Request: fold
Amino acid sequence: MTHRGDRTLAAKAIARVEGEGAMYVRVSDGRVEEVRLDIYEPPRFFEAFLAGRAYTEPPDITARICGICPVAYQTSACQAVEAACGISLPAPLADLRRLLYCGEWISSHALHIYMLHAPDFLGYPGAVELARDHREIVERGLALRRVANSIMEAIGGRSIHPVNVRVGGFYRVPAPGELAPLAEQLRGALGLALETVAWVAGFDFPDFSCDHELLALREPGRYPIERGTLASSGGLAFTAADFEQHVIEEQVPHSTALHASLAGHDGSYLTGPLARYTLNSRWLTPAAAAAAREAGLGPDCRNPFRSIVVRAVEIVCAIEEALRLIDAYQPPDRPFAEGAPRAGTGHGVSEAPRGVLYHRYELDEAGIVRSARIVPPTSQNQAAIQDDLRGFVQDRLELDDERLTRECEQAIRNYDPCISCAAHFLSLRVDRR
Amino acid sequence: MTGGPGTERRRVVVIGVGNEFRRDDGIGPEVVSRLRGQAPADVRLVVSDGDPTRMIEAWTGASLAVVVDAVLADPPAPGRLHRIVVDRAADAGVHPVSSHGLSLGQSIALARALDRMPERLIVHAVEAADVRQGVGLSPAVAGAAAALTAAVLQDLPADRGPTPDRARQA
Reply:
Protein backbone atom coordinates (compact mmCIF):
# COMPACT_ATOMS: atom_id res chain seq x y z
CA MET A 1 0.00 0.00 0.00
CA THR A 2 1.68 3.15 -1.09
CA HIS A 3 -0.98 5.66 -0.23
CA ARG A 4 -3.74 6.22 2.22
CA GLY A 5 -7.24 6.30 0.86
CA ASP A 6 -8.46 9.30 2.80
CA ARG A 7 -6.27 12.33 3.31
CA THR A 8 -6.79 15.96 3.99
CA LEU A 9 -4.09 18.45 3.14
CA ALA A 10 -4.60 21.93 4.47
CA ALA A 11 -2.28 24.88 4.00
CA LYS A 12 -2.85 27.73 6.39
CA ALA A 13 -2.66 31.33 5.41
CA ILE A 14 0.48 33.22 6.22
CA ALA A 15 -0.07 36.72 7.50
CA ARG A 16 1.78 39.94 6.68
CA VAL A 17 2.05 39.49 2.97
CA GLU A 18 0.23 41.57 0.41
CA GLY A 19 -1.96 38.69 -0.54
CA GLU A 20 -2.37 35.49 1.32
CA GLY A 21 -2.65 32.00 -0.05
CA ALA A 22 -4.05 28.87 1.43
CA MET A 23 -4.66 25.46 -0.01
CA TYR A 24 -6.98 22.68 0.98
CA VAL A 25 -7.02 19.23 -0.60
CA ARG A 26 -9.38 16.43 0.41
CA VAL A 27 -8.81 12.91 -0.80
CA SER A 28 -11.37 10.20 -0.23
CA ASP A 29 -11.06 6.57 -1.29
CA GLY A 30 -8.04 7.43 -3.39
CA ARG A 31 -9.86 10.15 -5.32
CA VAL A 32 -9.24 13.87 -5.02
CA GLU A 33 -12.63 15.09 -3.89
CA GLU A 34 -11.92 18.75 -3.40
CA VAL A 35 -9.18 21.25 -4.10
CA ARG A 36 -9.50 24.83 -2.95
CA LEU A 37 -7.03 27.59 -3.47
CA ASP A 38 -7.81 30.69 -1.51
CA ILE A 39 -6.12 33.89 -2.52
CA TYR A 40 -6.78 37.12 -0.77
CA GLU A 41 -7.18 39.89 -3.29
CA PRO A 42 -6.42 43.42 -2.07
CA PRO A 43 -7.68 45.10 -5.29
CA ARG A 44 -11.27 44.80 -4.15
CA PHE A 45 -10.75 47.49 -1.57
CA PHE A 46 -9.31 49.79 -4.16
CA GLU A 47 -12.43 49.65 -6.30
CA ALA A 48 -14.45 51.08 -3.43
CA PHE A 49 -12.20 53.96 -2.58
CA LEU A 50 -11.56 54.93 -6.20
CA ALA A 51 -15.18 56.10 -6.31
CA GLY A 52 -15.30 59.84 -5.81
CA ARG A 53 -11.72 60.41 -6.93
CA ALA A 54 -10.69 62.57 -9.87
CA TYR A 55 -10.12 60.92 -13.25
CA THR A 56 -6.43 61.78 -12.97
CA GLU A 57 -5.94 59.69 -9.84
CA PRO A 58 -6.48 56.00 -10.73
CA PRO A 59 -2.98 55.50 -12.22
CA ASP A 60 -1.25 56.56 -9.01
CA ILE A 61 -3.73 54.95 -6.65
CA THR A 62 -3.90 51.59 -8.39
CA ALA A 63 -0.12 51.44 -8.79
CA ARG A 64 -0.10 50.81 -5.06
CA ILE A 65 -1.99 47.55 -5.46
CA CYS A 66 1.19 45.72 -6.33
CA GLY A 67 4.84 46.40 -5.69
CA ILE A 68 5.86 43.98 -8.41
CA CYS A 69 3.62 45.13 -11.26
CA PRO A 70 2.71 48.79 -10.61
CA VAL A 71 3.25 49.69 -14.28
CA ALA A 72 0.59 47.19 -15.30
CA TYR A 73 -1.90 48.87 -12.99
CA GLN A 74 -0.90 52.33 -14.13
CA THR A 75 -1.14 51.36 -17.79
CA SER A 76 -4.52 49.65 -17.63
CA ALA A 77 -5.82 52.56 -15.54
CA CYS A 78 -4.51 55.18 -17.97
CA GLN A 79 -5.95 53.38 -20.96
CA ALA A 80 -9.36 53.03 -19.35
CA VAL A 81 -9.50 56.72 -18.40
CA GLU A 82 -8.15 57.77 -21.80
CA ALA A 83 -10.84 55.66 -23.48
CA ALA A 84 -13.50 57.34 -21.37
CA CYS A 85 -12.18 60.81 -22.18
CA GLY A 86 -11.41 60.19 -25.85
CA ILE A 87 -7.68 60.77 -25.43
CA SER A 88 -5.38 59.01 -27.86
CA LEU A 89 -1.63 58.88 -27.44
CA PRO A 90 0.72 59.97 -30.22
CA ALA A 91 3.09 57.20 -31.27
CA PRO A 92 6.17 58.43 -29.32
CA LEU A 93 4.21 58.47 -26.05
CA ALA A 94 2.71 55.06 -26.76
CA ASP A 95 6.23 53.78 -27.41
CA LEU A 96 7.48 55.16 -24.11
CA ARG A 97 4.61 53.45 -22.34
CA ARG A 98 5.64 50.16 -23.96
CA LEU A 99 9.27 50.78 -23.02
CA LEU A 100 8.37 51.35 -19.37
CA TYR A 101 6.28 48.18 -19.42
CA CYS A 102 9.26 46.24 -20.84
CA GLY A 103 11.15 47.26 -17.71
CA GLU A 104 8.44 45.81 -15.52
CA TRP A 105 8.37 42.54 -17.44
CA ILE A 106 12.12 42.12 -17.12
CA SER A 107 12.05 42.96 -13.42
CA SER A 108 9.08 40.78 -12.52
CA HIS A 109 10.11 37.80 -14.63
CA ALA A 110 13.72 37.90 -13.38
CA LEU A 111 12.48 38.03 -9.80
CA HIS A 112 10.20 35.07 -10.34
CA ILE A 113 12.68 32.97 -12.28
CA TYR A 114 15.73 33.49 -10.09
CA MET A 115 14.37 34.19 -6.62
CA LEU A 116 11.16 32.22 -6.49
CA HIS A 117 10.93 29.49 -9.07
CA ALA A 118 14.34 28.14 -10.13
CA PRO A 119 15.17 26.85 -6.60
CA ASP A 120 12.18 24.49 -6.97
CA PHE A 121 13.70 22.84 -10.01
CA LEU A 122 17.19 22.61 -8.56
CA GLY A 123 16.25 21.17 -5.21
CA TYR A 124 17.01 24.21 -3.11
CA PRO A 125 14.68 25.52 -0.43
CA GLY A 126 15.19 29.08 -1.67
CA ALA A 127 17.31 31.63 -3.47
CA VAL A 128 19.68 32.04 -0.53
CA GLU A 129 20.70 28.39 -0.66
CA LEU A 130 20.92 28.56 -4.46
CA ALA A 131 23.19 31.60 -4.14
CA ARG A 132 25.51 29.81 -1.72
CA ASP A 133 26.23 27.13 -4.32
CA HIS A 134 25.78 29.14 -7.52
CA ARG A 135 26.61 32.72 -6.80
CA GLU A 136 27.15 33.60 -10.46
CA ILE A 137 23.67 32.41 -11.38
CA VAL A 138 21.91 34.52 -8.79
CA GLU A 139 24.12 37.49 -9.70
CA ARG A 140 22.87 37.14 -13.27
CA GLY A 141 19.31 37.47 -12.01
CA LEU A 142 20.25 40.54 -10.00
CA ALA A 143 21.95 42.06 -13.04
CA LEU A 144 18.78 41.64 -15.09
CA ARG A 145 16.75 43.33 -12.39
CA ARG A 146 19.28 46.16 -12.26
CA VAL A 147 18.71 46.88 -15.95
CA ALA A 148 14.97 46.69 -15.45
CA ASN A 149 15.19 49.15 -12.58
CA SER A 150 17.19 51.50 -14.80
CA ILE A 151 14.35 51.51 -17.34
CA MET A 152 11.82 52.12 -14.59
CA GLU A 153 13.88 54.99 -13.19
CA ALA A 154 14.56 56.58 -16.60
CA ILE A 155 10.94 56.47 -17.79
CA GLY A 156 8.94 56.07 -14.61
CA GLY A 157 10.94 58.33 -12.33
CA ARG A 158 11.67 55.60 -9.79
CA SER A 159 11.83 51.84 -9.78
CA ILE A 160 8.94 51.04 -7.48
CA HIS A 161 5.55 52.68 -7.87
CA PRO A 162 6.70 54.99 -10.69
CA VAL A 163 5.66 58.60 -10.25
CA ASN A 164 6.12 59.89 -13.80
CA VAL A 165 3.04 58.25 -15.32
CA ARG A 166 -0.12 60.24 -15.91
CA VAL A 167 -3.29 60.01 -17.93
CA GLY A 168 -2.30 60.89 -21.51
CA GLY A 169 1.37 60.00 -21.09
CA PHE A 170 4.04 61.26 -18.72
CA TYR A 171 4.96 64.32 -16.68
CA ARG A 172 8.40 64.41 -18.23
CA VAL A 173 9.90 62.60 -21.18
CA PRO A 174 13.59 61.80 -21.71
CA ALA A 175 15.69 64.27 -23.69
CA PRO A 176 17.42 63.06 -26.87
CA GLY A 177 20.45 61.05 -25.94
CA GLU A 178 19.28 60.49 -22.39
CA LEU A 179 18.42 56.89 -23.18
CA ALA A 180 21.80 55.99 -24.69
CA PRO A 181 23.26 54.63 -21.43
CA LEU A 182 20.13 52.54 -21.03
CA ALA A 183 20.64 51.02 -24.47
CA GLU A 184 24.19 50.14 -23.51
CA GLN A 185 22.97 48.35 -20.39
CA LEU A 186 20.28 46.55 -22.37
CA ARG A 187 22.75 45.26 -24.96
CA GLY A 188 24.70 43.67 -22.13
CA ALA A 189 21.54 42.28 -20.60
CA LEU A 190 20.50 40.59 -23.83
CA GLY A 191 23.32 38.09 -23.42
CA LEU A 192 22.30 37.45 -19.80
CA ALA A 193 18.72 36.90 -20.90
CA LEU A 194 19.75 34.39 -23.56
CA GLU A 195 21.86 32.57 -20.97
CA THR A 196 18.79 32.51 -18.73
CA VAL A 197 16.70 30.81 -21.42
CA ALA A 198 19.37 28.17 -22.01
CA TRP A 199 19.73 27.63 -18.27
CA VAL A 200 16.03 27.11 -17.46
CA ALA A 201 15.47 25.05 -20.61
CA GLY A 202 17.77 22.44 -19.09
CA PHE A 203 15.57 21.87 -16.03
CA ASP A 204 13.56 18.68 -15.65
CA PHE A 205 9.90 19.33 -16.27
CA PRO A 206 7.13 17.04 -15.04
CA ASP A 207 5.01 15.69 -17.85
CA PHE A 208 1.89 17.74 -17.34
CA SER A 209 -0.43 19.54 -19.68
CA CYS A 210 -3.42 21.79 -19.11
CA ASP A 211 -6.30 22.01 -21.53
CA HIS A 212 -7.79 25.27 -20.34
CA GLU A 213 -8.96 27.84 -22.77
CA LEU A 214 -6.19 30.42 -22.96
CA LEU A 215 -6.89 34.15 -22.90
CA ALA A 216 -4.38 36.83 -23.85
CA LEU A 217 -4.10 40.13 -25.61
CA ARG A 218 -3.28 40.17 -29.28
CA GLU A 219 -1.79 42.91 -31.35
CA PRO A 220 -1.05 41.52 -34.80
CA GLY A 221 2.53 42.14 -35.81
CA ARG A 222 4.03 42.33 -32.36
CA TYR A 223 4.04 40.52 -29.05
CA PRO A 224 1.32 41.97 -26.80
CA ILE A 225 2.58 43.89 -23.78
CA GLU A 226 0.89 47.17 -22.97
CA ARG A 227 -2.17 47.03 -25.20
CA GLY A 228 -4.18 44.95 -27.62
CA THR A 229 -7.53 43.27 -28.08
CA LEU A 230 -8.46 40.02 -26.43
CA ALA A 231 -8.25 36.63 -28.06
CA SER A 232 -8.71 33.09 -26.81
CA SER A 233 -7.49 29.72 -27.93
CA GLY A 234 -11.14 28.79 -28.45
CA GLY A 235 -11.58 31.49 -31.05
CA LEU A 236 -13.02 34.30 -28.96
CA ALA A 237 -12.05 37.79 -30.07
CA PHE A 238 -13.25 40.93 -28.35
CA THR A 239 -12.17 44.36 -27.25
CA ALA A 240 -11.60 45.67 -23.75
CA ALA A 241 -15.00 47.35 -23.92
CA ASP A 242 -16.64 43.92 -24.12
CA PHE A 243 -14.51 42.32 -21.41
CA GLU A 244 -17.30 42.10 -18.87
CA GLN A 245 -19.65 40.48 -21.39
CA HIS A 246 -17.18 37.66 -21.86
CA VAL A 247 -15.54 37.33 -18.47
CA ILE A 248 -17.97 36.45 -15.73
CA GLU A 249 -16.89 36.73 -12.13
CA GLU A 250 -18.73 35.01 -9.33
CA GLN A 251 -18.40 34.65 -5.60
CA VAL A 252 -17.20 31.39 -4.17
CA PRO A 253 -17.66 30.72 -0.47
CA HIS A 254 -14.07 29.93 0.42
CA SER A 255 -12.40 32.94 -1.13
CA THR A 256 -12.41 36.69 -0.94
CA ALA A 257 -11.39 36.70 -4.60
CA LEU A 258 -13.96 36.31 -7.31
CA HIS A 259 -13.72 33.37 -9.64
CA ALA A 260 -13.70 34.19 -13.32
CA SER A 261 -14.96 32.15 -16.24
CA LEU A 262 -15.64 32.83 -19.88
CA ALA A 263 -19.30 33.27 -20.71
CA GLY A 264 -20.72 30.37 -22.67
CA HIS A 265 -17.63 28.27 -22.17
CA ASP A 266 -17.38 25.43 -19.71
CA GLY A 267 -14.62 25.42 -17.22
CA SER A 268 -11.87 27.74 -16.26
CA TYR A 269 -9.47 29.66 -18.43
CA LEU A 270 -5.87 30.66 -18.05
CA THR A 271 -4.15 33.94 -18.66
CA GLY A 272 -0.45 34.74 -18.36
CA PRO A 273 2.75 33.58 -20.03
CA LEU A 274 1.43 30.28 -21.42
CA ALA A 275 -1.58 32.01 -22.94
CA ARG A 276 0.46 34.93 -24.29
CA TYR A 277 3.01 32.63 -25.82
CA THR A 278 0.57 30.15 -27.32
CA LEU A 279 -1.54 32.88 -28.89
CA ASN A 280 1.33 35.12 -29.98
CA SER A 281 4.56 33.15 -30.36
CA ARG A 282 4.71 34.00 -34.06
CA TRP A 283 5.24 37.65 -33.10
CA LEU A 284 8.19 37.19 -30.79
CA THR A 285 11.19 39.35 -31.57
CA PRO A 286 13.92 37.55 -33.62
CA ALA A 287 16.32 36.61 -30.82
CA ALA A 288 13.43 35.61 -28.56
CA ALA A 289 11.95 33.41 -31.28
CA ALA A 290 15.33 31.75 -31.86
CA ALA A 291 15.85 31.25 -28.13
CA ALA A 292 12.40 29.68 -27.83
CA ARG A 293 13.20 27.23 -30.62
CA GLU A 294 16.52 26.31 -29.08
CA ALA A 295 14.82 25.83 -25.73
CA GLY A 296 12.51 23.28 -27.31
CA LEU A 297 9.36 25.35 -27.19
CA GLY A 298 7.01 24.75 -30.10
CA PRO A 299 4.40 27.26 -31.25
CA ASP A 300 2.26 26.31 -28.23
CA CYS A 301 3.17 25.70 -24.60
CA ARG A 302 0.59 24.08 -22.34
CA ASN A 303 2.80 22.69 -19.59
CA PRO A 304 2.61 25.12 -16.66
CA PHE A 305 5.96 23.88 -15.38
CA ARG A 306 7.57 25.17 -18.56
CA SER A 307 6.18 28.65 -17.93
CA ILE A 308 9.61 29.44 -16.49
CA VAL A 309 11.04 28.96 -19.99
CA VAL A 310 8.36 31.18 -21.48
CA ARG A 311 9.14 33.89 -18.93
CA ALA A 312 12.81 33.70 -19.83
CA VAL A 313 11.93 34.01 -23.53
CA GLU A 314 9.73 36.98 -22.70
CA ILE A 315 12.66 38.68 -20.97
CA VAL A 316 14.62 38.37 -24.22
CA CYS A 317 11.63 39.74 -26.11
CA ALA A 318 11.25 42.68 -23.71
CA ILE A 319 14.94 43.55 -23.97
CA GLU A 320 14.87 43.46 -27.78
CA GLU A 321 11.72 45.56 -27.79
CA ALA A 322 13.26 48.05 -25.37
CA LEU A 323 16.34 48.36 -27.60
CA ARG A 324 14.19 48.88 -30.69
CA LEU A 325 12.07 51.52 -28.95
CA ILE A 326 15.11 53.39 -27.66
CA ASP A 327 16.73 53.28 -31.07
CA ALA A 328 13.63 54.78 -32.69
CA TYR A 329 12.96 57.28 -29.92
CA GLN A 330 12.19 60.83 -30.94
CA PRO A 331 11.05 63.02 -28.08
CA PRO A 332 7.41 63.97 -28.48
CA ASP A 333 6.42 67.63 -28.68
CA ARG A 334 4.64 67.34 -25.38
CA PRO A 335 5.05 64.81 -22.57
CA PHE A 336 1.35 64.04 -22.53
CA ALA A 337 -1.74 64.19 -24.71
CA GLU A 338 -4.29 66.73 -23.51
CA GLY A 339 -7.84 65.74 -22.87
CA ALA A 340 -10.75 67.10 -20.89
CA PRO A 341 -12.88 64.80 -18.79
CA ARG A 342 -16.32 63.87 -19.97
CA ALA A 343 -19.09 61.63 -18.76
CA GLY A 344 -18.67 58.08 -19.91
CA THR A 345 -17.16 54.70 -19.29
CA GLY A 346 -13.72 53.55 -20.36
CA HIS A 347 -12.06 50.16 -20.42
CA GLY A 348 -8.37 49.34 -20.40
CA VAL A 349 -6.40 46.13 -20.70
CA SER A 350 -2.72 45.29 -20.64
CA GLU A 351 -0.57 42.21 -20.17
CA ALA A 352 0.71 42.29 -16.61
CA PRO A 353 3.63 39.87 -16.18
CA ARG A 354 1.19 37.29 -14.85
CA GLY A 355 -1.67 37.93 -17.28
CA VAL A 356 -4.46 40.15 -18.52
CA LEU A 357 -5.26 43.06 -16.23
CA TYR A 358 -8.57 44.80 -16.89
CA HIS A 359 -9.73 48.18 -15.56
CA ARG A 360 -13.02 49.95 -16.10
CA TYR A 361 -13.94 53.43 -14.90
CA GLU A 362 -17.23 55.25 -15.10
CA LEU A 363 -16.75 59.03 -14.98
CA ASP A 364 -19.25 61.83 -14.56
CA GLU A 365 -19.09 65.05 -16.57
CA ALA A 366 -16.68 66.61 -14.05
CA GLY A 367 -14.31 63.66 -14.36
CA ILE A 368 -15.15 62.15 -10.98
CA VAL A 369 -14.95 58.37 -10.82
CA ARG A 370 -18.46 57.04 -10.19
CA SER A 371 -17.47 53.40 -10.22
CA ALA A 372 -14.40 51.30 -10.85
CA ARG A 373 -13.77 47.68 -11.65
CA ILE A 374 -10.42 45.91 -11.62
CA VAL A 375 -9.98 42.30 -12.70
CA PRO A 376 -6.44 41.14 -11.93
CA PRO A 377 -4.88 38.10 -13.56
CA THR A 378 -4.51 36.08 -10.39
CA SER A 379 -8.22 36.01 -9.71
CA GLN A 380 -8.83 35.02 -13.34
CA ASN A 381 -6.38 32.14 -12.95
CA GLN A 382 -7.55 30.93 -9.58
CA ALA A 383 -10.05 28.38 -10.90
CA ALA A 384 -7.58 27.11 -13.50
CA ILE A 385 -4.90 26.68 -10.85
CA GLN A 386 -7.34 24.65 -8.75
CA ASP A 387 -8.29 22.47 -11.72
CA ASP A 388 -4.64 21.82 -12.48
CA LEU A 389 -3.88 21.05 -8.84
CA ARG A 390 -6.70 18.54 -8.77
CA GLY A 391 -5.23 16.60 -11.69
CA PHE A 392 -1.71 17.08 -10.41
CA VAL A 393 -2.51 15.67 -6.96
CA GLN A 394 -4.57 12.81 -8.39
CA ASP A 395 -1.60 11.64 -10.43
CA ARG A 396 0.75 11.82 -7.44
CA LEU A 397 -1.17 10.26 -4.59
CA GLU A 398 1.61 7.75 -4.07
CA LEU A 399 3.85 10.55 -2.74
CA ASP A 400 4.09 11.12 0.98
CA ASP A 401 2.56 14.27 2.38
CA GLU A 402 5.81 16.19 2.62
CA ARG A 403 6.79 15.53 -0.97
CA LEU A 404 3.27 16.12 -2.24
CA THR A 405 3.12 19.41 -0.40
CA ARG A 406 6.40 20.52 -1.89
CA GLU A 407 5.31 19.61 -5.38
CA CYS A 408 1.97 21.36 -4.92
CA GLU A 409 3.79 24.51 -3.86
CA GLN A 410 5.97 24.30 -6.92
CA ALA A 411 2.93 23.73 -9.10
CA ILE A 412 1.25 26.83 -7.68
CA ARG A 413 4.38 28.89 -8.25
CA ASN A 414 4.17 27.96 -11.94
CA TYR A 415 1.43 30.55 -12.22
CA ASP A 416 3.38 33.26 -10.41
CA PRO A 417 0.36 34.18 -8.32
CA CYS A 418 0.56 37.78 -7.33
CA ILE A 419 1.39 37.18 -3.74
CA SER A 420 4.32 39.27 -2.71
CA CYS A 421 5.70 36.34 -0.79
CA ALA A 422 5.19 33.64 -3.40
CA ALA A 423 8.25 31.90 -1.98
CA HIS A 424 6.95 29.45 0.59
CA PHE A 425 3.56 31.01 0.88
CA LEU A 426 2.07 27.67 1.72
CA SER A 427 2.74 25.86 4.93
CA LEU A 428 0.93 22.60 4.85
CA ARG A 429 -0.77 20.75 7.63
CA VAL A 430 -1.88 17.20 7.02
CA ASP A 431 -4.85 15.64 8.74
CA ARG A 432 -4.97 11.90 8.38
CA ARG A 433 -8.08 9.89 8.80
CA MET B 1 40.71 56.05 -8.22
CA THR B 2 40.70 58.41 -5.26
CA GLY B 3 37.64 60.32 -4.30
CA GLY B 4 37.33 63.86 -3.14
CA PRO B 5 36.23 65.01 0.30
CA GLY B 6 33.21 63.13 1.51
CA THR B 7 33.89 60.03 -0.53
CA GLU B 8 33.75 57.92 2.60
CA ARG B 9 30.39 59.30 3.62
CA ARG B 10 29.13 58.94 0.07
CA ARG B 11 29.39 55.27 0.81
CA VAL B 12 26.97 55.65 3.70
CA VAL B 13 23.37 54.78 2.97
CA VAL B 14 20.22 54.98 5.05
CA ILE B 15 17.46 52.68 3.80
CA GLY B 16 13.94 53.27 5.07
CA VAL B 17 12.04 50.07 4.52
CA GLY B 18 8.28 49.96 4.44
CA ASN B 19 4.98 50.85 2.92
CA GLU B 20 3.31 54.05 4.01
CA PHE B 21 -0.05 52.55 3.06
CA ARG B 22 0.30 49.93 5.77
CA ARG B 23 0.20 52.32 8.71
CA ASP B 24 3.15 51.71 11.07
CA ASP B 25 5.04 49.93 8.30
CA GLY B 26 5.52 53.46 6.94
CA ILE B 27 7.95 54.39 9.71
CA GLY B 28 11.00 53.60 7.54
CA PRO B 29 10.00 56.02 4.75
CA GLU B 30 8.93 58.54 7.44
CA VAL B 31 12.39 58.54 9.03
CA VAL B 32 14.04 58.96 5.62
CA SER B 33 11.76 61.91 5.00
CA ARG B 34 12.76 63.45 8.34
CA LEU B 35 16.45 62.90 7.58
CA ARG B 36 16.28 65.10 4.48
CA GLY B 37 17.90 68.32 5.49
CA GLN B 38 19.28 66.79 8.69
CA ALA B 39 21.58 64.03 7.48
CA PRO B 40 25.01 64.87 6.05
CA ALA B 41 24.75 65.88 2.42
CA ASP B 42 26.63 62.94 1.05
CA VAL B 43 24.69 60.25 2.86
CA ARG B 44 22.44 58.46 0.40
CA LEU B 45 18.81 58.31 1.49
CA VAL B 46 16.84 55.45 0.03
CA VAL B 47 13.26 54.27 0.42
CA SER B 48 12.73 50.59 -0.25
CA ASP B 49 9.94 48.07 -0.31
CA GLY B 50 12.34 45.61 1.29
CA ASP B 51 12.76 43.46 -1.81
CA PRO B 52 16.06 41.65 -1.14
CA THR B 53 17.52 42.31 -4.57
CA ARG B 54 16.83 46.03 -4.21
CA MET B 55 18.15 46.08 -0.65
CA ILE B 56 21.36 44.42 -1.78
CA GLU B 57 21.76 46.83 -4.69
CA ALA B 58 21.25 49.74 -2.30
CA TRP B 59 23.92 48.71 0.19
CA THR B 60 26.49 46.97 -2.00
CA GLY B 61 29.85 48.71 -1.58
CA ALA B 62 28.65 50.81 1.34
CA SER B 63 30.98 51.39 4.26
CA LEU B 64 27.90 51.77 6.44
CA ALA B 65 24.27 50.89 5.79
CA VAL B 66 21.62 51.91 8.29
CA VAL B 67 18.27 50.18 7.81
CA VAL B 68 15.13 51.53 9.42
CA ASP B 69 12.17 49.17 9.61
CA ALA B 70 9.10 48.27 11.62
CA VAL B 71 8.91 45.04 13.58
CA LEU B 72 6.17 43.06 15.21
CA ALA B 73 7.13 41.81 18.64
CA ASP B 74 5.54 39.35 21.02
CA PRO B 75 4.73 40.56 23.59
CA PRO B 76 4.40 43.92 21.86
CA ALA B 77 5.50 47.28 23.18
CA PRO B 78 4.55 49.61 20.30
CA GLY B 79 7.03 52.42 19.84
CA ARG B 80 9.91 50.62 21.56
CA LEU B 81 13.17 51.08 19.67
CA HIS B 82 15.78 48.48 18.91
CA ARG B 83 19.28 48.98 17.52
CA ILE B 84 21.01 45.92 16.15
CA VAL B 85 24.51 45.82 14.73
CA VAL B 86 24.51 42.99 12.22
CA ASP B 87 27.63 40.96 11.81
CA ARG B 88 28.86 40.58 8.24
CA ALA B 89 29.02 36.83 8.46
CA ALA B 90 27.15 35.37 11.39
CA ASP B 91 23.42 34.90 11.56
CA ALA B 92 22.30 37.68 13.84
CA GLY B 93 18.76 36.41 13.90
CA VAL B 94 17.33 39.66 12.61
CA HIS B 95 13.82 39.04 11.34
CA PRO B 96 11.85 42.27 11.14
CA VAL B 97 8.37 41.65 9.88
CA SER B 98 6.78 44.20 7.62
CA SER B 99 3.79 44.08 5.33
CA HIS B 100 6.15 43.16 2.54
CA GLY B 101 6.59 39.43 2.63
CA LEU B 102 10.32 39.06 2.19
CA SER B 103 12.06 39.84 5.41
CA LEU B 104 15.23 41.77 6.09
CA GLY B 105 16.63 38.49 7.35
CA GLN B 106 16.39 37.12 3.83
CA SER B 107 18.11 40.18 2.39
CA ILE B 108 20.96 39.70 4.82
CA ALA B 109 21.20 35.96 4.16
CA LEU B 110 21.23 36.53 0.40
CA ALA B 111 23.79 39.32 0.69
CA ARG B 112 26.05 37.06 2.72
CA ALA B 113 25.74 34.27 0.15
CA LEU B 114 26.68 36.75 -2.58
CA ASP B 115 29.37 38.48 -0.51
CA ARG B 116 27.44 41.72 -0.90
CA MET B 117 27.13 42.80 2.71
CA PRO B 118 28.02 46.41 3.54
CA GLU B 119 31.10 46.85 5.69
CA ARG B 120 28.83 47.74 8.60
CA LEU B 121 25.10 47.15 8.87
CA ILE B 122 23.01 48.68 11.62
CA VAL B 123 19.29 48.00 11.88
CA HIS B 124 17.05 50.44 13.70
CA ALA B 125 13.68 48.86 14.34
CA VAL B 126 10.58 50.17 16.00
CA GLU B 127 7.87 47.91 17.32
CA ALA B 128 4.65 48.44 15.38
CA ALA B 129 1.13 48.53 16.72
CA ASP B 130 -0.79 48.38 13.47
CA VAL B 131 0.31 47.24 9.99
CA ARG B 132 -3.17 46.96 8.49
CA GLN B 133 -4.02 48.77 5.28
CA GLY B 134 -4.34 52.51 5.71
CA VAL B 135 -2.27 55.63 6.06
CA GLY B 136 -0.91 57.28 9.18
CA LEU B 137 1.24 55.98 12.01
CA SER B 138 -0.27 54.82 15.29
CA PRO B 139 0.25 57.29 18.17
CA ALA B 140 2.89 55.07 19.79
CA VAL B 141 4.99 54.81 16.63
CA ALA B 142 4.44 58.44 15.61
CA GLY B 143 5.62 59.41 19.08
CA ALA B 144 8.82 57.42 18.61
CA ALA B 145 9.67 58.87 15.18
CA ALA B 146 11.74 61.78 16.51
CA ALA B 147 13.79 59.60 18.84
CA LEU B 148 14.29 57.04 16.10
CA THR B 149 15.47 59.72 13.68
CA ALA B 150 17.88 61.04 16.29
CA ALA B 151 19.19 57.54 16.92
CA VAL B 152 19.86 57.06 13.20
CA LEU B 153 21.65 60.43 13.02
CA GLN B 154 23.89 59.33 15.88
CA ASP B 155 25.12 56.46 13.74
CA LEU B 156 26.00 58.66 10.76
CA PRO B 157 29.42 60.26 10.29
CA ALA B 158 29.84 63.87 11.43
CA ASP B 159 27.67 66.45 9.73
CA ARG B 160 29.11 68.63 6.98
CA GLY B 161 25.93 70.30 5.91
CA PRO B 162 22.33 69.36 5.19
CA THR B 163 21.27 67.02 2.43
CA PRO B 164 19.66 68.38 -0.68
CA ASP B 165 15.94 67.69 -0.61
CA ARG B 166 16.04 64.46 -2.45
CA ALA B 167 15.76 60.80 -1.80
CA ARG B 168 15.94 58.04 -4.28
CA GLN B 169 13.87 54.93 -4.42
CA ALA B 170 15.46 51.53 -4.28
Q: What stands out?
A: Chain B touches chain A through 28 residues (CB under 8 Å). The beta strands of chain B are 12-17, 44-48, 64-71, 81-86, 121-127, 168-169. The helical segments of chain B are 7-10, 27-35, 52-59, 104-113, 139-155.
